[in-house]
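Postdoc handover notes: sequence design on the structure in folder B. Input tokens:
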């Protein structure tokens, strides 16, 4: 078996508000609009989709949508300038050997932006 790509599908109550966030705040591009589901490119082989026929499922910080980048500080500044609610600036987490911060999308899902330090 050779797997080719990855898509994570999550529920949303508002496709329009979700699209505005993922297109205009996170600067992702739309891969496919299926009417009740919209899929966004994260990278060539990695995508995230939101569907209005699925329930929003979240508890505390679960699930966490994590985007990995070498430019955590740059993404942090960009999201702050676009009005994202970020409770703390990027910080090192020695337990996981990462540098990261958290924000939230319009569905209440936790977004983490991180860089591996090892």
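Designed sequence:
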């Amino acid at each position: 078996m050779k797997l080719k790509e990855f898509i994570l599908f999550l529920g949303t109550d508002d496709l329009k508000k979700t699209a505005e966030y993922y297109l205009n705040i996170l600067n992702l591009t739309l891969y496919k609009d299926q009417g009740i589901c919209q899929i966004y490119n994260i990278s060539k082989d990695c995508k995230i989709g939101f569907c209005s026929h699925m329930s929003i499922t979240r508890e505390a910080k679960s699930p966490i949508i994590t985007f990995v980048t070498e430019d955590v500080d740059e993404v942090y500044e960009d999201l702050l300038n676009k009005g994202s609610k970020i409770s703390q600036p990027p910080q090192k987490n020695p337990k996981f050997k990462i540098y990261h911060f958290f924000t939230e999308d319009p569905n209440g899902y936790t977004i983490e932006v991180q860089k591996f330090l090892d």
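Context for whoever picks this up: The first helix runs from residue 15 to 25. Don't rerun without checking with the PI first.
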